Amino acid sequence: MSHLEHVVVIGAGLGGVRTVKQLRSAGFEGAISLVGAEPHAPYDRPPLSKQLLTGACSPKGIVLLGADALKGLNVSMHLGVPAVALHEGAVELADGTTIEADAFVIATGAAPRKLPGQPDGVHALRTLEDSLSLRSALEDAMSLLVVGGGFIGAEVASGAVDRGLQVTVLEALPVPSHRAFGSEVGVVYGRLIAEGGGDLRLGAKLTRFVDSTTVELAEGERLTADVVLVGIGAEPALDWLHREGVNTTNGIACDSSGRVLGAPGVWAVGDVAAWEDPLRGGHFRYEHWTSAVEQAAIVACDIVGAEPPEPTVPYFWSDQFGLKIQGLGRTELGDSVAALQGEGLSGGAIKGTVAGYFAGDRLVAVVGFGAAKWVVRYRVLVDKGAERAEVFALK
Ligand SMILES: Cc1cc2nc3c(=O)[nH]c(=O)nc-3n(C[C@H](O)[C@H](O)[C@H](O)COP(=O)(O)OP(=O)(O)OC[C@H]3O[C@@H](n4cnc5c(N)ncnc54)[C@H](O)[C@@H]3O)c2cc1C
Asked: Is 120 exposed, middle or buried (0-12, 13-18, 19+ CB in 10 A)?
């Protein structure tokens, strides 16, 4: 069992809260402090672009750690005060407080990327305030322009179409979400947005904002909407972390237990962390809800010296245009894509489609559109990197 006396968790979002809970359930009896930049009780982010935005739930409904749960965990909370530096054995907060401890877990998440010259009135979506401000802007709007064809923008677009708004989605590449899906499945995803009622403009390069409601494209065309949202991805939130010897090229480089390389006594989880993948080599950062949860459990076990849970393959989901999209594994490792279920890849109905990504003969990922039952069944095959013949036998 751990000999540590005090663990400080920096970042009070999903990864931070789960780390605290897992430390206690793994038997850690020492002091725990949780530091968070935002003033609110820790909350969950997926509903920000879904139920909270559409009004199907309230801010109370997305709280991750309420007052009662906190009491039971015996945690010292520092909310509304961001960490500004991490020294050896101490974290420094914006209000001048220094907290000393013998272990630190960094869980500061990510912050939305901005475009050059992005005016203040243009929306982004990462925080509770962002979601509430977007919701109130959409209430009086007739039109929405989404810059970027990623999941968060498309989820907002989907909700806005349902409310009867005229919705345009600008995507600079020939298919939306190319990084997540690649070309062939990106085409299916683009069809989902377009068939769902979004005016998807592919290869559309924004050159500048005229103001907070008008953008100019490369050919000089101007587009205006009542509300403009930029959803072009997020950067790990680590500009506060000035620590020599730590690699922060794309997230904080960690080993496969979440220990930060070059910083003994420090771990990192969630969107900010790039963990080593011992099976495939290299460091990878995932902005997936389940990755933050799984990493928190592994780190807590590592800190207390308990047996960690087995890591699973990366998993994400997104709800939009009436379908649940799910991805299992690492699509970027695939060198070919094949239809495993449904007709979407050959231009037919998107619902029920499952695409398999293969590296040579081995299955490395699947993506499903409204095909949850099938995605579950392929999990074991992605986990073990099954050969093509076994994968197709599931047909
Ligand atoms: C709108 C939206 C919708 C999403 N939908 C899905 C989905 O459908 N499916 C899915 O798989 N994933 C989804 N995600 C991703 C998922 O929510 C994240 O992967 C998850 O929240 C990561 O947890 P985290 O703890 O790393 O980061 P966060 O939950 O972002 O928590 C980080 C916390 O650290 C705080 N912080 C930042 N800097 C500092 C500092 N210097 N000091 C102290 N605190 C700091 C932040 O304020 C924040 O509260 C969505 C994300 C967003 C934004």
From this structure: exposed
